């Protein structure tokens, strides 16, 4: 397995298990655990991923080409989805990355993440897990939307698979090299897709839920996994971390878990503190954790394709 340098992140507490690299009450409590309802990315929010970092790591063969954007409509699970595609305007094929939104739905935050991935040399599709481009304006509405998806995980898999097929069919994409990243709700989605054997090369979860819809069995997980977690996130207790790592080891999964000191939930989003204050939720943006997590994700993806 390719290992990336840890010198830049030595202060970060982390746990590592690797094998060779392979080619709102009762229901609300459950929702908090499974869906991490405090995902902070209101409409118009910005990706916290620093542009300078992604530009420094941009693929040299694509960095000189213009950034292209497309609105993509696709369907699955009897629902029409509205995706957003971002890529550099070159004919050279590159790995594709699916980006799964927070519980607020497909908004500008997830589109900004797709743009940053495109600048880094990938073709990125920001997916729509709710359908019809639905967005939530309040945590109660967001809980309803996200709960409907996670409680019908066969439908969620169909929606995710449809987005993956759309991405694989893009002319600029290497269809055999697909990864996925997700934030909060989206982090839980991509981890559960990896658990159930989706053919992904790499999966990255930013402050996402660790709980399993269905635990992975030995040999099920095809993707390399990177989990970037806020060490002080009250929505991810130590019991969940221990259970996740135990599950991954039992499944012989290639995974890495990184705890970022001082970071709480939604640490990548500059809007987090504002939204936490508005809705009385334990959220806060953390610029250092944001930058560190993005750089780790970029190194991880680069080593995975």
Q: What does the model show?
A:
Helix 3 (about 110-120) links the parallel strand 4 and strand 5. About 50% of the residues are buried. The chain has nine helices and nine strands. A nine-stranded mixed beta sheet has the order 1-9-8-7-6-4-5-3-2, with helices on both faces. With about 300 residues, the chain is α/β, with parallel strands linked by helices. The chain is globular and about 45 Å long.
Would you list the SSEs in sequence order as H and E? EHHEEEHEHHEHEEHEHH
- DSSP E strands, number: 9
Average pLDDT level: 85
Strand content: 15-25%
Q: For this structure, what is the CATH homologous superfamily?
A: Alpha/Beta hydrolase fold, catalytic domain
Straight-line N-to-C gap: 12 Å
Helical stretch tally:
9
Task: Report the C-alpha radius of gyration, rounded.
Answer: 17 Å
How would you concisely characterize the structure shown here?
The protein contains nine helices and nine strands. By secondary structure, the chain is an alpha/beta fold. The model is unreliable at 1-38 and 40-58 (pLDDT under 50).
What characteristics describe this protein?
305 residues, alpha/beta, Rossmann fold, 9-stranded mixed sheet, 9 helices, 9 strands, 35% helix, globular, disordered N terminus
Layout of helices and strands, plus pairs?
Layout: E1 14-17, H1 26-35, H2 51-56, E2 67-76, E3 79-88, E4 94-100, H3 108-119, E5 123-126, H4 139-150, H5 153-168, E6 173-183, H6 185-195, E7 202-206, E8 224-230, H7 238-250, E9 255-260, H8 272-279, H9 287-304
Parallel strand pairs: 4-5, 4-6, 6-7, 7-8, 8-9
Antiparallel strand pairs: 1-9, 2-3, 3-5
Helix pairs in contact: 1-4
């Amino acid at each position: 397995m390719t290992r990336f340098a840890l010198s830049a992140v030595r202060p970060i507490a982390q746990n590592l298990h690797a094998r060779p690299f392979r080619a709102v009450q009762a229901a609300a409590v459950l929702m908090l655990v499974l869906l991490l309802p405090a995902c902070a990315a209101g409409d118009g929010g910005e990706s916290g991923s620093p542009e300078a970092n992604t530009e420094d790591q941009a693929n040299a063969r694509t960095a000189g080409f213009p950034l292209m954007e497309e609105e993509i409509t696709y369907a699955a699970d009897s629902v029409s989805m509205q995706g957003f595609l971002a890529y550099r305007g070159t004919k050279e094929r590159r790995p594709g990355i699916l980006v799964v939104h927070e519980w607020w739905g497909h908004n500008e935050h997830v589109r900004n993440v797709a743009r940053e991935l495109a600048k880094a040399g990938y073709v990125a599709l920001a997916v729509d897990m709710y359908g019809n481009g639905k967005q939530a304006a309040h945590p109660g509405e967001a809980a309803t939307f996200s709960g409907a998806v996670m409680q019908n995980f066969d439908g969620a898999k169909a929606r995710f698979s449809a987005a993956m097929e759309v991405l694989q069919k893009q002319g600029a994409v290497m269809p055999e090299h697909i990864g996925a990243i997700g934030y909060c709700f989206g982090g839980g989605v991509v981890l559960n897709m990896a658990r159930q054997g989706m053919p992904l090369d790499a999966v990255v979860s930013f402050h996402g839920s660790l709980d399993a819809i269905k635990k992975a069995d030995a040999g099920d997980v095809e993707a390399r996994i990177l989990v970037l977690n806020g060490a002080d996130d009250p929505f991810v207790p130590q019991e969940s971390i221990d259970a996740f790592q135990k599950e991954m080891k039992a499944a012989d999964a290639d995974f890495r878990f990184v705890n970022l000191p001082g970071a709480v939930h939604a640490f990548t989003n500059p809007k987090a503190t504002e939204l936490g204050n508005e809705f009385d939720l334990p959220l806060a943006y953390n610029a250092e954790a944001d930058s560190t997590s993005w750089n780790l994700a970029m190194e991880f993806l680069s080593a995975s394709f």
